[in-house]
């Protein structure tokens, strides 16, 4: 495993991390989830990402149980706040001081830890003053409940405004968690250049495109039994837009490139995002220990300029690059 600094900080994290977005508490039962976490630890992964909203808090509980007994100082545990949790009342969502304060306390209890290494705004909250949100995060850092603060799917302008307030309030905003993969590159035009200027790293999710970049989904064929696309509790709604035959045909062209590199298709996809020097870690999932191990093996792999060009040629105009997509990810009103 290789390690990278997270933003302009002294914190190092594993460049392949383990996240439990659509698995723990939904697609994968607790015993299987623990096996996946153990496989991640065995592969040298020290960084674990979750959120209070995943499986309506159940994912945090399962991750806390799975990591219990590990040396806390040797782990980096990330979680997030914003989306509805609990009974999903009017204050059970968003980035108000009330919701942030209550959410961090609940997350720490579920994760069985006194602090998280990184606490993240899961989206931008258009209904709460940014000053209120950042002041609440400043207080959480001073209380020792979070060491660093990050965000997720913020635009370049939002990152700039948040970073300015964080600096004025005396804490570090060091990361952004966007979707990023070979087929989804919307952060490259605006978010990455701004982040480099501000000392913010990308903690990217879906580097394998919800599993589509493994090549297991074939054009003109039904999804494989047991895959995410067939599991209503495993994020099938997220993957449907990626199952168009024209995209799947292009992805099949990546398979010989992976073979030439001595990598599995999943490893090629993870290695690709790690070629971006603004990426601190690629969050990978997996419902089976062997998938976790395979993903982790992408750490440290270097792709030549020739290989990167072959990938671009194979995917062509199927790549999504519109920066507007980042703006569209944050709801403009609270989800209740």
Automatic annotation (TrEMBL):
UniProt-listed SUPFAM superfamilies: NAD(P)-linked oxidoreductase
Domain (NADP-dependent oxidoreductase) ranges: 17-314
Molecular function in Gene Ontology: oxidoreductase activity
Biased composition (Basic and acidic residues): 314-325
InterPro entries recorded: AKR (IPR020471), K_chnl_volt-dep_bsu_KCNAB-rel (IPR005399), NAD(P)_OxRdtase_dom_sf (IPR036812), NADP_OxRdtase_dom (IPR023210)
Alphabetized CDD domains for the sequence: Aldo_ket_red_shaker-like
Pfam families: Aldo_ket_red
Keywords: NADP, Oxidoreductase
Zinc among keywords: no
Keyword NADP tagged: yes
Residue ranges with Polar residues bias: 326-336
Start and end residues of each stretch annotated as Disordered: 314-336
Family: Belongs to the shaker potassium channel beta subunit family.
Protein's name in the database: Aldo/keto reductase
Organism in which the protein naturally occurs: Microlunatus endophyticus
